[in-house]
Write a structure and sequence with these properties.
Layout (H helix, E strand, L loop, with lengths): L3 E7 L8 H9 L2 E3 L4 H4 L1 H4 L3 E3 L6 H14 L2 E6 L9 H7 L3 E4 L4 H9 L11 E5 L1 H4 L8 H4 L4 E5 L6 H12 L5 E6 L7 E6 L3 H5 L17 E5 L10 H9 L8
Parallel strand pairs: 1-4, 1-5, 2-3, 2-4, 6-7
Antiparallel strand pairs: 7-10, 8-9, 8-10
Bound molecules: S-adenosylmethionine.
Length: about 260
């Protein structure tokens, strides 16, 4: 039976596709790719049927998919991967055993690599919170961002739709300080990549006139900008933690 593979396609750099994803992409006959992923993977998609899933309502999409499945395997290229903020769950559920999910490099991973930072650090960050101001608005009982963060929180914000100055002010209230580091990472791995790092107090100015969040244009699609906030972005790290683990954890390995 032919399969539908939901392949984590990475943040935009085609080199970040996994080897498994690349093998499945090479072997399929139809590719569903939201823009700009059809262009990003143009060389791999050549000769296959290419469709934009966002051009269909759900039932016609399923119908088209079933027709495509009769011709061979189908690959959905998922921006980042399915783990966070991917709209493909209903399709995966509907397809049941005919659906398979292939993990990939999410924008969170790409951000950590670009910043060269681990987002949790012993004694600095005890928790990482992933959220989106868009989906927080979906439920009236959701806490405000200021109630969710505090000292020791690393925050990753997807699909921000709030003006930067207002957002930074609320986060500063939550952290209880406005010198907490913040990074804006735009179009990671894509043309036009842009990264700025500042503090909650200075980010509105550091961000300049650039429309980081598609707040000014007509497009309703969220901008490809990830926000990372927290002390882990700049905290100094020495080898103490390494040596502690060497003594208490790694050295014990193999001792039965
Ligand atoms: C619908 S969500 C998709 C997330 C995706 N499933 C992932 O794991 O990265 C879109 C949001 O992810 C973030 N994002 C996705 N690709 C990005 C990129 N190349 N650079 C920066 N942020 C990105 C942005 O916050 C954007 O608004």
């Amino acid at each position: 039976m032919n399969q539908v593979y939901f392949v984590g396609a990475g943040p935009g750099d085609p080199e970040l596709l996994t080897r498994r994803g690349a093998r499945l992409l090479a072997g399929c006959s139809t590719v569903y790719a939201p823009p700009p992923f059809g262009e990003i993977f143009a060389a791999d998609v050549a000769g296959k049927t290419l469709r934009n899933p966002f051009g269909y309502y759900f039932d016609p999409l399923l119908e088209q998919l079933r027709t495509d499945l009769a011709a061979g395997d189908v690959v959905f290229l998922i921006p980042g991967d399915l783990t966070f903020y991917a709209p493909f769950q209903a399709l995966v559920a509907e397809l049941g055993t005919q659906a398979e999910v292939i993990p990939g490099v999410g924008s969170a991973n790409a951000a950590a690599a670009r910043l060269k930072r681990t987002f949790d650090l012993p004694g600095v960050s005890s928790r990482t919170l992933l959220a989106s101001p868009r989906t927080l608005g979906d439920r009236g009982d959701a806490p405000r961002l200021a109630e969710m963060v505090g000292p020791g929180t690393t925050l990753l914000l997807y699909m921000n739709n709030r003006p930067l100055a207002e957002l930074a002010e609320e986060l500063a209230a939550g952290y209880g300080r406005d010198d907490v580091p913040i990074a804006l990472l735009h179009r990671l791995g894509l043309e036009g990549e842009r990264v700025v790092q500042a503090t909650l107090a200075s980010i509105a100015e550091a961000g300049g006139d650039f429309d980081w969040f598609n707040l000014e244009g007509n497009s309703k699609r969220p901008a490809l900008t990830l926000i990372v906030v927290g002390e882990a972005l700049t905290a100094e790290v020495d080898g103490g933690w390494w040596d502690y683990r060497r003594t208490h954890i790694w050295q014990q390995e193999g001792k039965g």
